[in-house]
């Protein structure tokens, strides 16, 4: 385990300090992602940084996390999620994304096979996805239902439509909706693993998972949306569930845990005894 060093140069495009999204301009007036009720603008107001500044103050850790290689930033930045490398056809698919990319990180990913593609669960983790895609010259797969939330358009971004997108060799993107209309998860068949971001939230009690419309503002998800998540996942059996932060892993019985957690959640929303 080692802390990768950071660099003194990089893009001057604005990055939101609260959600970590990189914009396609150096001085935006607002962050629509944070103004949405699923996120928040801090009491002190909207603040910005840049990739150049972030490289001065932060570095990335690369280490094993639940059997996949994780990449996360220290000190924790913005929402604090980590990305995962999923081996695929001699390279990797990067699942979810982080704001910081520097030469050290790119080199470490390169010796592990580089990136053939990137897929991001929902807009809160779009971060610097274009920076990553340009560096590795690979496509980014986002669901078309969330196209409005891309703050830095780029030709590397692919908006797919429908309910599933097959990468091949057992990797499948599944649109679950819920937290966002285009919220997607990644099913890894040969590992019987579900990479869920926080579309399906791994919680401290690993016997259960949960669901929300807004996590920071504690707005619950409605019954129909929760049932839609369960139905979307039904054709894809999985044991482990890998959430968005270091160590957020359900190790076994994942499919059953999602089903019974949904029933518990729906009962609570209805006001039934839990």
CATH fold naming? Metallo-beta-lactamase, Chain A
The order of strands across the largest sheet is: 3-4-5-6-7-8-9
Strand content: 25-35%
Helix/strand class? alpha+beta
- Main beta-sheet strand count, sense and barrel state: 7 strands, mixed
Kindly, what is the distance between the CA atoms of the first and last residues, rounded to a whole number of angstroms?
42 Å
Give the averaged pLDDT, no decimals: 95
Number of strands: 17
Can you give the helix content as a percent range?
Answer: 10-25%
CATH architecture: 4-Layer Sandwich
CATH homologous superfamily assignment: Ribonuclease Z/Hydroxyacylglutathione hydrolase-like
Outline: globular
Describe the structure.
It is a single chain. The protein is α+β, with helices and mostly antiparallel strands. It has a single domain, classed as Ribonuclease Z/Hydroxyacylglutathione hydrolase-like (Metallo-beta-lactamase, Chain A), CATH 3.60.15.10. The chain is built from 6 helices and 17 strands. The protein has a 7-stranded mixed beta sheet with strand order 3-4-5-6-7-8-9. The chain has a 6-stranded mixed beta sheet with strand order 10-11-12-13-16-17, covered by helices on one side. Strand 3 and strand 4 form a beta hairpin. Helix 5 runs antiparallel to helix 6. The longest helix has 17 residues. The chain starts with 13 loop residues before the first strand and ends with a helix. The N terminus is likely disordered.
